[in-house]
Amino acid sequence: MKRGLKWVVRGTIGLFVLATVTCTQSEQSPEITEAGPGPSGLPQVYAVNYPLSYFAERIAASEVDVVFSAPPDVDPANWSPTAETIARYQQADLVLLNGAGYAGWIGRATLRDSRLVDTSAEFVDELIAIEDAVTHSHGPDAEHSHQGTAFTTWLDMSFATSQARAVFDALVRVAPDHEADFRQGLGVLEQDLDGIDKRLQDVASRIGGQPLLFSHPVYQYLIRRYGLNGRAVHWEPDEMPGQDEWRRLAEALDTHAATWMVWEAEPLPETVKRLEDMGISSLVFQPCANRPSTGDFLGVMLENVSALERAFAVSGF
Question: Which domains does the chain have, with CATH numbers?
């Protein structure tokens, strides 16, 4: 069932600038060795990002071999796997796709359509199209833009739940004898996602129409789902913005008087200090497209919510 109309957002600082989970990646990094064959007899389920891998692991427990092979220091959305890794995807029983144009290498690889699962198909008409995207670069990376479709879908917890259900349906197809166990795993996962959703709605109601800044265009579905008044810039947490960026930010504050900036990772201390001098505090809300160095998807999302609750003094949690 497809719902609603496709949203269109223009990519300027005065509007939501929507794009990828992060802009940086290191294609020279070694790929995770777990991308090899799994235990004999278990269905092989490959995922293009960590949220989908996590959903499959939570639902299927030890009944399937779930593989997420992107290196830890890359953006899975822009990652290009080696030929060897693609060959492993070709042998998989299932390949879990995020949809919305995520992981462009999928379109260039020869994979069996019958094994591909677009987990965002249920809400395809509610995806956000990006127009007039800004072309930019970070460090030594080549210039690029974010034209296309915003794809950090899982930051809308209702979409994350829909994607988890699509994963469940696909797992049942490859391991039907375990449907009851999978359904139990899905039920617990749905409760966890619903709990996060409710807390985000509560803190969003507390925030109300207060202007917010987002350090990078990665929060489009979070902003829309929870009715936040946000504007995004193209800043990286590990880079000090240049003078032009600071000037544009000061101009934006004339019409969008934000006192908080939301970051995808911990920003540099000197950036935090300069923002504080402008009356802007910083908090981290990790999109978690890749496997975190500690903990898991649920833990990261719970910490994200807690950071918002602390910032906006939401009591009762």
Answer: 23-191 (3.40.50.1980), 207-311 (3.40.50.1980)
